[in-house]
Design a protein that fits this description.
This protein is an all-alpha fold. The two termini are 64 Å apart. The longest helix has 104 residues, at 67-170. Helix 1 (2-55) packs antiparallel against helix 3 and helix 2 packs antiparallel against helix 3 (67-170). The chain has helices at 2-55, 57-63, 67-170. It has 3 helices and no strands.
Length: 171
């Protein structure tokens, strides 16, 4: 009874952990895909920055005669710098999320392993109890037959005494 309930609870917990593991692995796959896309964008940004860097921001600014053009060029540089920083921060965030997901996956795998071992022990205990019960039941019929056989012998003995008693009484 109690062992059977524990086994059922453990099996439900195993199923829940397996589902959680599946969800975590799906999330990890999505995060890895996002990471790969972010890496590609960062590589492109770095390539662009390298190409722009060859010209030199100062040289570009000094070659500008119109102050509005200089202001606009500085605005573009600021925009690219901010976009690159945002991209790098998103990338760092994705890496942190991947680390957290991996920790949760490892924890869930550990729980699954522990629960699996516990379930195996519980099932072994249940099988042991079933075997013990079968042995007890197997002994009972023998003991019952022996007791019945003894009872039958007692009844025959009792009847023999009654017959003897009636025979004496009639004499």
């Amino acid at each position: 009874g109690s062992l059977q309930k524990k086994i059922a609870e453990n099996q439900r917990a195993l199923e829940a952990s397996a589902k959680e593991l599946s969800d975590l692995e799906q999330q990890r796959g999505e995060r890895e895909k996002a990471r790969d896309q972010q890496q590609a964008r960062i590589a492109l940004e770095l390539k662009t920055a390298w190409q722009m860097g060859r010209q030199g921001q100062l040289k570009i600014l000094l070659n500008q005669e119109n102050p509005h053009t200089v202001a606009r060029t500085l605005g573009y540089y600021r925009y690219f710098f901010q976009a690159r920083n945002t991209l790098l921060e998103q990338y760092r965030k994705t890496l942190r999320e991947l680390e957290e997901l991996q920790l949760r996956i490892d924890t869930t795998l550990s729980e699954l392993k522990t629960r699996g071992q516990t379930l195996a022990e519980q099932q072994a205990d249940r099988e042991h109890e079933a075997r013990d019960q079968q042995h007890v039941l197997a002994r009972r019929p023998r003991q019952s037959r022996q007791a019945e056989h003894r009872d039958d012998g007692d009844e025959e003995h009792d009847e023999g005494q009654r017959v003897e008693g009636h025979g004496r009484a009639s004499q």
